[in-house]
Structure formats: C-alpha cells, structure tokens
Amino acid sequence: MFPLRIVPWRDFFYFLTVKFSLCHKYRRTIYRCNKKYDGHKCQTPHVTEEEIKAAFVTAFNKLVTEREEIAANARLVRQTLCDTTKLEQEKASLQQELAVLVEMTQNCIAENARIAQDQGDYQKRYNALVERYEKAKVRFDEVTEAIAERSAKGERLAGFIRTLEVQKEPVAEFDERLWGAMVDCVTVSVDGGMSSA
C-alpha cells in the first residue's frame, strides 16, 4: 500500500508488511520492524495501515492550516539548500582541468614515442599526470553526484510546495495522491508516534 520507507526510531532497519486475512471481516495489514524477532528485539511497536492513514490526515491538515508560511519557508529552504551554482562552476573548472590533463598525458606519450629519453623520468612524469587526473576525476564525480542530489531534492521540495499550494482545504480522509506527493519516509518512535520526512 505505502510505496516508501517506514523505519523504526534509532534503527537502520525497515518495516515490513504483514497481512492477516483470516477472513475479510478481520483482514488487517500491519507494519513492523523486520528485525523485531531476529535476535535484535526492536522495541518499536507495529503500526496498522489505519494508524498510518490517520496520522497522515492529521499531519497534513496541520500543514494546510499554515500552508502559506510553510510554503514560504520551503521555498527559502529550496533556494538555500538546493542551489547548485557553485557546484556547477566547480564542475566546469574540473572539466577543463581534466581536458588539459588528458592533453598533457597524450603529449607526454607522443614525446616518449618520438624522442629517446630516460624511461624512469618518463614514467615519473606519466604517473604524476595520471595521479592528478585520477584525483580530479574523483572530485568531478563527487561534484556531479552532489549536483544530482541537490537537483532531486529541489524537485521534491518543488512538488511539496505545489501540492501544498493547490490543497486549500483540510482533507477528511486519506488520499493516496497526497501521500505520494508529501511523504518520503515515516519514522515510528518507541511510543508508537510517527513523523515523516
């Protein structure tokens, strides 16, 4: 039912779905820590689908009552945390550096092929260029990944803001569309309380 992560508080395990269906009248779906009976003895209680839905409706309705302020704050957070300008500049600089290093390495190889020289010196120069290239490439990959992560976060926040702005009234019952747009992860605490991210 819920296409997301439900996690127990202070653990790095996930909740799994357990369906009880003795007959339709008593059918029930619960979510519990997948390590509850696996020697870990997780203290987090299981939660039912109905509890999750009720908690979502309550939390969403609180958001709707203060939606303008929350949307403004979310825009500010998105602008601050999801900005990739400096990372894009660093990526462009690293791209240029990588191109220069490739050219220098090719020139080093071509020079070694044309001119007789001490192979020990050549190998040192070649290894130094390759090492510089590999360091720059590692940093380039890190920056590229950071840009992708920030962009994805920005898109999720933009979706959150759009959904919040469109929904002007509190909801009376659980809405799967809202759930999918608003919730990424639900954390269940030891007392059974739930919070989302």
**How far apart are the first and last residues' alpha carbons, in Å?**
18 Å
How helix-rich are the residues, as a percent range? Answer: 55-70%
Inertia-based shape: elongated
Overall number of strands: 6
Structural class: alpha+beta
Strand arrangement in the largest pleated sheet: 1-5-6
SS summary, helix count: 5
The parts where pLDDT drops under 50 for at least 5 residues are 9-13
- Mean pLDDT metric: 83
The main β sheet shows up as: 3 strands, mixed
Radius of gyration: 27 Å
Number of structural domains: 2
Task: Estimate what percentage of residues fall within beta strands.
Answer: 5-15%
Spell out the helices and strands N to C: EEEEHHHHHEE
Properties at a glance:
2 domains; 6 strands; elongated; 197 residues; 13% strand; three-stranded antiparallel sheet; three-stranded mixed sheet; alpha+beta; 5 helices
How are the elements arranged and paired?
Blueprint: E1 5-8, E2 15-20, E3 28-33, E4 47-48, H1 49-65, H2 67-81, H3 85-114, H4 119-166, H5 176-182, E5 185-188, E6 194-196
Parallel strand pairs: 1-5
Antiparallel strand pairs: 2-3, 3-4, 5-6
Helix pairs in contact: 2-4, 3-4
Report on this structure.
Helix content is 59%, strand content 13%. By secondary structure, the chain is an alpha+beta fold. It folds into 2 domains: 5-79 and 173-196, no CATH class; 82-155. The strands form 2 sheets. Strands 1-5-6 form a 3-stranded mixed beta sheet, with no helix packed on it. The protein is elongated. The chain starts with a strand and ends with a strand.
